[in-house]
Design a protein that fits this description.
It comes from Marinobacter maroccanus. 66% of the residues lie in helices and 5% in strands. The protein has 87 residues and is mainly alpha-helical. The chain has one domain. The chain has a two-stranded antiparallel sheet.
Length: 87
Amino acid sequence: MSLRDAIDNFYERLVVDAIEATRQESDTADYLTDVMCVALNRLPTRYYRHSIDMMFYLADEELKGMKQKSLAAVKEAREFVREHQRE
């Protein structure tokens, strides 16, 4: 097993959830992948090794704030990608 496979960024889950919450019928996989990259680049990283540890040690208010930041980053990323799409 690679060391890279042993950790994850918690914001990846939150951004996927925010993308799903804002998903539109016209969204393509390429567009959403670009949105995810842009959103994640605008958020801090929050690495964890075991998801149970992350959920156990994360305060409710902190999780709520992280979800709000993720949703805001996704909304901004949607606009950015839409404005910078290549034809």
